[in-house]
Amino acid sequence: xxxxxxxxxxxxxxxxxxxxxxxxxxVAVIQKSRADRRDQWWxxxxxxIEQTFTGDEEQQALGFRVLQxxxxxxLAADEELLLLESLTTxxxxxxxxxxxxxxxxxxxxxxxxx
Length: 114
Hints:
Elements: H1 3-52, H2 57-71, H3 78-87
């Protein structure tokens, strides 16, 4: 390989480097966006959990509805879903304004997730 051949490969190397940098940048932006969305999911979950412990039945019902929506979100990881499921058990279920009734009016089965 002579110097002319190496000199002709320079622009290709620069182009490949730029493409790699673009891909790395896009991956970083996507990861940051997902992390931000998950952070917002958790803030909403915290708010909804707090609402389920208020003395106001309307706020409790709202908290449970929001938790149900958050449980259906693709942003919820397995650990978060387990957390939400645990909130519907013995600690919080007695506080639910509808008792054992789900939002659809049907009876909530043992082990059903939000």
